[in-house]
From TrEMBL:
CDD domains registered for this protein in UniProt: YlxR
Superkingdom, taxonomy of origin: Bacteria
Domain YlxR as annotated: residue spans: 10-83
SUPFAM superfamilies named in the record: YlxR-like
Protein name per Swiss-Prot or TrEMBL: YlxR family protein
Amino acid sequence: MATKKKEPLRKCVVTQEMFPKKDLIRVVRNKEGEVFIDETGKKNGRGAYLSKDPSTIEKAKKSNILQKHLNATISDDIYDELMQRVSE
């Protein structure tokens, strides 16, 4: 009997809902203070998870929630890139 590996759950910083890690997008601030989208989910740094939903990205942008979470300035490029990913 193979036991199914438990899937890691993470909380979306906007909706506060738990999702499987692979269903979320991770945004990271590293030690150098650079903010970027983490494709692998394994990069070092402070991470914040967002659900793959355009309205969630909009909300995050309006409320500056990523800025608060990552303690860094988030450029519009990051939000644009996030929007592109969720609308694919």
